[in-house]
Amino acid sequence: MPFISQIQRQTDYNLFPSSTPIVIDNGASYFRIGWAGETDPRVIFRNIVQRPRHKTTGETVTIVGDHDTTLLKYFDCTRSGPRSAFDSNVVYQFEIMEYILDFAFDRLGANGSEIDHPVLITECVCNPVHSRSKMAELLFETYGVPSVAFGVDAAFSYKYNQQYGICNKDGLAICPGFSTTHVIPFVEGEPVYRGSCRTNIGGYHITDYLKQLLSLKHPQHMTKLTWEKVEDLKMEHCYIAPDYFSEAQLFQKRTKEAEHKTRCWQLPWVPPPTEEPPSEEEIARKAAIKERQGQRLREMAEAKRSSRINELENQIHGLEFLLQQLEQVEENDIAAFLSDTGYVSRQEIESTLVKLTQSLRKAKGERKVEQAELEKTDASMNEKYPLIHIPDNMLSLEQLKEKRRQIFLKTTTEGRQRAKQKRVEEELEQEKKNQEEEERRLENPELYVEQMRAKYKELSEKIDQRKRLKTNGNHTNGNNTSGGVGRGERLNAAQRERMRLLTTAAFDRGKGEDTFGAKDEDWQLYKLMSRDNDDDDEEMDENEAELARISARLQEVDPTFVPKQESGPTQSAAEIPRVRPLTKEDFQIVLGVERFRCPEILFRPNWVGIDQVGLDEMTGVSIRRLPTKDEDLEQRLTSSIFMTGGCCLFPGMSERLEAGIRMIRPCGAPIKVVRALDPVLDAWRGASIYAAKLQFPQQTFSRMDYYEKGEDWLRRYQLQYTL
Asked: Which comes out higher in pLDDT, residue 230 or 65?
């Protein structure tokens, strides 16, 4: 509606004399107020109140009706949601109703505390006397209204459309509203309230049902599915299916007709920037930068190595000079001489000198010298252990003990030397391989990278396959998963054999006397049960080490290489989450079966937990409640079935209602379903025409009548719609 300033509203308000009634359509969804005799209401707004706090000052403000969502950033609405004065379709929160009336009269232009105009206000069918008396008390005592009249909105809409020949004097008015649905029979133009019926289903339940279905279907967009937006989607896209199950089968079979009926709401979405693959110049530039960085690191390492070598040489020269000085010092003066140097004896100096010499040779990379030292050590081994090659019968008891000690020391020393020699050989072999790989890379870099990538892929697939086999219990058909097998099925062959040996040993031990270990063959079980003999695990460790080496090498020579993400020890390759980029389709709300499934609850309220009849059955209930049983009257009623209310705007409503009523009426009975000219505003327009008639003051009751006659008179009050 266009914006009208407060001065203009007050000017328009003063133009109407005090005898002009104010017409109010107090609906559960929208509140409409205007002047009698006009075609449209002056003010229309949502019949809700919200009282949020200001985020800065903490002051509580009152917001009535529709509000600008941009203003809510200044208020905290988390503790105060929208509240309505209605319980179902009956007003019971008159404190909220007072806020709404204050706002309505202010927007109408009233500038005083009293309203000196008669008021015609709508109410629901068979409104409780308590609610009617509270509304009269509010209008009389708070606003000083001179007189009040109450009428049913559906009856005003029926009488308004009767003037245009839409419906007859005898008929049924079906009003599916916001929270309830009423059916009112009309005989000779007057409503027969004894035959009316109500079902607690309406537009509110349809919106709430649609919101639930869309939230379950698109849980990632629940914040976008606000009540106002779902209400708009309902009014724009929902329709009544002629046959629900046939319509549902179309969507179940995914026919072209179902695709044509599917609607899509596109949410705001900004496509991510496309990452173009790097050009050859960019790859060459990154490779050059990486090469320069590697050269710089090599230079730094060489400088550090040279500094280390110089430091070690200086320390060795110092120790050698110290040993030369010790030769000139007498034996008694050695302790005093070494007190200032930090050493205790000549042996400590010689040991430190040997360690520094080895560190210097290692820093210089003198492998051949280490091998020569190993050979020299082997040659001097016999001189160090003289008793080893002497027969036992030629030795005394003390010499035999010493011989055994020398054998143990020699064996330990030889083992250490062999391990050291093996490490030296492996380092030489690895260094040789690295040199060969570097030569192949320099000869043909592209071929080298391609071969390394192929080897990396092969090892990755091999490791993943072994992990899957280990998880699935060596079943390659894919039918066994980690969650469907026992622990024994998940073990490989070596592990199952180990478990069998352990079980057998434990079982045999309980049979009788424990003789395990009496035979040498028993100790072979330890070797069989040892985890070190698990060749599969050793091979897997070697493959993983080789894969890590190739990955590190590819990262050095190929800037575009991205290593594969490793899964956890308990996570199989099939369980690795794959995150794909969000697309336009991920920001779409698709409405398929929801378009006709949600309005279907008007005919099947039990779908949402309301154990009551639907719209089509309500007509039969209303006809059966009539005080007189007249077949001619029933035929006249069914030949003029009038629909009004917001839910009548769904496409296909008239056809579906007519088909449902035909199922419960006798064969050949005349059935005609019509819809109001404007199901939303016809109730207010009918009330406006009624209040503009000269006989309207006779249908009102004044403030003096209310004070004198009280609540009992309101109980018997009933508006006469035919004037």
From this structure: 230
Q: What are the respective helix, strand and coil percentages of the chain, to the nearest 5?
A: 55, 10, 35
Name which of 520-524, 545-549, 680-684 the model is least confident about: 520-524
Strands 190-191 and 86-87, by their bridges, are: unpaired
144 vs 127: CA distance, rounded Å: 23
Tell me 266's DSSP state.
Answer: E
Q: Which of 204, 202, 258 is nearest to 615 (CA)?
A: 202
425 — pLDDT class (breaks 50, 70, 90)? confident
* Dihedral, CA of residue 208, residue 209, residue 210 and residue 213, to nearest 10: 120
Give residue-wise pLDDT tens across range 670-684: 999 999 999 999 999
- Distances, alpha carbon 442 to alpha carbons 280, 282, 287, 439, in Å: 18, 20, 14, 5
Task: Yes or no: say if 554 and 561 are a contact pair by the CB < 8 Å rule.
Answer: yes
Cα(680)–Cα(622) distance, rounded to whole angstroms? Answer: 23
Tokens of 572: 């199989």
Task: List C-alpha distances in Å: 312 to 330, 345, 356.
Answer: 29, 21, 6
Residue whose tokens read 């154990």:
611
pLDDT category of residue 612 using cuts at 50, 70 and 90: very high
Structure token pair of residue 519? 């035979």
DSSP string, 123-156: E-TT--HHHHHHHHHIIIIIH--SEEEEEEHHHH
Query: Residue 603: how many CB atoms within 10 A of its CB?
Result: 20
- Residues 6 or more apart whose Cβ sits within 8 Å of residue 496: 488
Give the list of residues 6+ apart from residue 355 with CB closer than 8 angstroms, or none: none
Rounded Cα distance between 713 and 702, Å, is 12
Scan for tokens 């706002």, then name that residue: 103
323: confidence class by pLDDT, cuts 50, 70, 90: confident
Instruction: Give the angle 52-55-57 at the CA atoms, nearest 5°.
Output: 100
**The pairing of beta strand 701-702 with beta strand 190-191:** unpaired
| Percent residues over pLDDT 70 in the chain | 84
User: pLDDT value at position 566?
Assistant: 55
Among residues 601, 625, 597, 595, the alpha carbon closest in space to that of 615 is found at 601
Q: Which amino acid is at 24?
A: I
Q: Find tokens 């080893």 and name the residue.
A: 388
- Lookup: tokens for 57: 């000052």
